[in-house]
């Protein structure tokens, strides 16, 4: 599927002497997606340091000296996605999978979710069972963070990250490497920022599991970055820290 | 104290004097009765003038104190030092190789030689360091290895400090004071110099500058500020090296590069000796509430635009639980047997070892895995039955939080105390610099427990220091 989208974020900055942002907003081409074009527009991006982070992502460090008022970040790009039944495989700059067994404050295991899970049917079956349990236990994603065309983020109690963290905590408790993945999900005419999980299998490599939607990501998912948890995979982390959530829109563009 | 009498570095059991101390013994005999007392008083004046103080946490008597200085030097022969420094160099090589492996392919974990969980779930392990290629492949450039001696040829490593070891300024000032107090003694002995340390530190830092830094890289010392207990040392070293002394707010990152604010305008910084803990280094990557760090510093480091000395995440190599694996680590990376011994260490998560520890706690030393500075530790033979019970309960509650070792009979050195010259227990922290070459300053900081019989040498617990002499051949 060819997906063309634009993601706009507006942040209120105040007037610091220096502002710095760490961006994880650049997708890699993988077996699941081919990045045809991609751009980030924001003050300072032309002079930004571009580098690979610890988790194999393309990262940027952007700074502004004496910025004023509002910071607008616009990401736009076109990606062709392929249905690989959720299998990402191995990427060139992936760190050791064992790293993703490290428990973090955000990825605590819930014993109820893993009780009785059996590896007898194989790891893949177990991970599907876990996805199903997380999906049921945490609730249907009716109120997920879907943005309307007007750009207001709707109030919601459940965020995709809650599903992802529950899945990751449980998988790691079972000694299965699992990582947090950010990206966009397309639902017919709308697109939204999203989060899901990749779990490790020695045979297949990394496999995606989207417990919020209870499916393995296929053509509807555009993958941005992976990390230990939501904090290590934040699309934008900034200093000074923003007081408020950004106003943001994600639009699907006609080809 | 139970057990046989400890090894004294000056006097043998039969009363004869060991060879390196013969001249000193003669010199001491020549001193008129009040001379040593007067020297000790002079020493205090010298240190007050030099301004060396340190802060004691949890103390009520003001925050700044002088570290007591003992006027009798500790003397190590050239042969003894050659053996020791070989062992130290071996350790430092292996631990840097271990850090590179842990933050790349993790072969030692795959080989099962060190448990994966111990490393990857450790709070001292820094996931953000994965895949980063530091200049020359070196992670820990400045290391202080804590060593104790229990016999003529019997040395043990107590701790490898690979994060931000402090105390080197005491080593330098102790030497300066000693040169002023007893210049005649330096005429009789050929003592290897320590004064080259700041110059060697500068060379080491320059040798690990990033590729684009040019032939004379700009160096900075990053300090948490004047309230830090080691601020004196930070400013002293910056001054000696001709480096910028900066607090976090004096540095900023622009376009991926690090600059210092100076009176002459922004100055590009290439290598930073940071004396701020990992967590506080950069609020953009680590603790977002850190006011001490520099936003964007870690990303600038990852982008290859600045070198951090030491690298973040080096603590995984001196973690007390990892310590027990150091002999294994040396074999794995160097294919050699460890030249310096580890202190045998009981693992309290093992039921059998824990049972032994609980039964014999009165003979043992208990340390917190993440503790330092002598805080939160128990020296069994020097503690009350009540303290033993408290630590038994602590170990039972969190067995993974403690390591336990036998009480070592630390060697003693003659020390000037109120009653005259008497043996007191000592340890040794040699300082190692790793860059284009490995430079070990001959000697190091000798810490001495001034209380009779005490084995706790930490300055925060009433320990003092001595000038440490390595004799040249």
From TrEMBL, chain A:
- Pfam families recorded for this chain? Bact_transglu_N, Transglut_core
Family matches, as InterPro entries? Bac_transglu_N (IPR013589), Papain-like_cys_pep_sf (IPR038765), Transglutaminase-like (IPR002931)
Organism, as annotated: Devosia nanyangense
**SUPFAM superfamilies per record:** Cysteine proteinases
Q: What is this protein called?
A: Transglutaminase family protein
What are the Transglutaminase-like domain coordinates in residue numbering? Answer: 153-213
């Amino acid at each position: 599927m060819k997906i063309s989208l634009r993601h706009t974020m507006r942040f209120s900055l105040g007037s610091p002497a220096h502002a710095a942002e760490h961006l994880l907003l650049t997708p890699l081409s993988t077996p699941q997606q081919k990045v045809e074009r991609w751009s980030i527009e924001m003050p300072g991006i032309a002079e930004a340091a571009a580098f690979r982070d610890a988790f194999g992502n393309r990262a940027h460090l952007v700074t502004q000296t004496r910025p004023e008022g509002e910071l607008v970040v616009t990401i736009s790009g076109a990606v062709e996605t392929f249905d690989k039944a959720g299998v990402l495989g191995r990427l060139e700059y992936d760190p050791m999978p064992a790293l993703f067994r490290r428990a973090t404050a955000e990825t605590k295991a819930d014993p109820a979710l893993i009780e009785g899970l059996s590896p007898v049917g194989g790891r893949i079956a177990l991970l599907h069972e876990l996805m199903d349990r997380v999906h049921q236990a945490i609730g249907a994603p009716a109120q997920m963070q879907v943005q309307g065309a007007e750009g207001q983020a709707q109030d919601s109690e459940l965020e995709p990250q809650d599903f992802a963290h529950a899945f990751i905590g449980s998988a790691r408790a079972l000694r299965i490497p699992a990582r947090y993945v950010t990206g966009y999900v397309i639902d017919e005419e709308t697109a939204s920022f999203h989060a899901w999980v990749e779990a490790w299998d020695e045979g297949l490599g990394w496999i995606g599991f989207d417990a919020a939607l209870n499916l393995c990501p296929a053509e509807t998912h555009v993958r941005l970055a992976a990390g230990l948890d939501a904090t290590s995979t934040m699309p934008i982390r900034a200093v000074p820290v923003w007081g408020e959530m950004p106003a943001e829109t994600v639009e699907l563009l006609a080809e | 104290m139970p057990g046989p009498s400890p090894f004294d570095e000056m006097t043998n059991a039969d009363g004869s004097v060991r060879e390196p101390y013969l001249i000193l013994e003669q010199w001491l005999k020549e001193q008129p009765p009040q001379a040593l007392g007067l020297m000790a008083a002079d020493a205090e004046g010298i240190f007050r003038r030099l301004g060396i103080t340190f802060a004691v946490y949890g103390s009520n008597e003001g925050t700044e104190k002088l570290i007591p200085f003992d006027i009798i030097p500790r003397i190590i022969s050239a042969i003894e030092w050659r053996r020791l420094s070989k062992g130290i160099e071996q350790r430092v090589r292996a631990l840097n190789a271990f850090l590179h492996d842990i933050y790349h392919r993790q072969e030692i974990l795959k080989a099962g030689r060190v448990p994966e969980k111990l490393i990857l779930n450790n709070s001292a392990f820094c996931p953000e360091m994965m895949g980063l290629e530091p200049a020359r492949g070196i992670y820990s450039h400045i290391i202080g290895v804590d060593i104790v001696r229990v016999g003529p040829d019997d040395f043990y490593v107590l701790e490898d400090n690979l994060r931000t070891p402090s105390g080197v300024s005491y080593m330098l000032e102790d030497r300066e004071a000693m040169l002023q107090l007893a210049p005649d003694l330096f005429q009789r002995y050929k003592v290897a110099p320590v004064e080259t340390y700041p110059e060697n530190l500068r060379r080491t830092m320059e040798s690990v500058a990033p590729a684009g830094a040019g032939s004379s890289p700009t160096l900075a010392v990053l300090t948490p500020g004047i309230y830090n207990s080691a601020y004196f040392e930070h400013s002293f070293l910056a001054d000696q090296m001709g480096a910028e002394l900066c607090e976090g707010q004096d540095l900023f990152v622009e376009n991926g590069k690090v600059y210092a604010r100076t009176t002459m305008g922004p100055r590009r910084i290439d290598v930073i000796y940071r004396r701020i803990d990992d967590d506080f280094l950069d609020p953009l990557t680590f603790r977002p509430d850190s006011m001490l760090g520099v936003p964007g510093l870690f990303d600038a480091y990852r982008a290859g635009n600045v070198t951090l000395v030491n690298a973040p995440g080096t603590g995984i190599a001196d973690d007390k639980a990892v310590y027990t694996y150091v002999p294994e680590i040396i074999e794995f990376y160097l294919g050699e047997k460890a030249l310096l011994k580890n202190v045998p260490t009981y693992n309290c998560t093992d039921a059998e070892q824990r049972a032994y520890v609980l039964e014999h706690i009165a003979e043992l030393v208990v340390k917190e895995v993440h503790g330092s500075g002598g805080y939160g530790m128990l020296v069994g033979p020097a503690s009350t039955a009540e303290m033993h019970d408290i630590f038994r309960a602590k170990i039972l509650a969190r067995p993974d939080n403690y390591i336990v070792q036998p009480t070592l009979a630390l060697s003693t050195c003659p020390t000037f105390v109120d009653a005259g010259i008497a043996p007191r227990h000592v340890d040794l922290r040699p300082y190692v610099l790793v860059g284009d070459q490995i430079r070990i300053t001959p000697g190091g900081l000798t810490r001495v427990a001034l209380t009779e019989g005490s084995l706790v040498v930490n300055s925060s617990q009433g320990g003092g220091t001595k000038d440490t002499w390595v004799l040249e051949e």
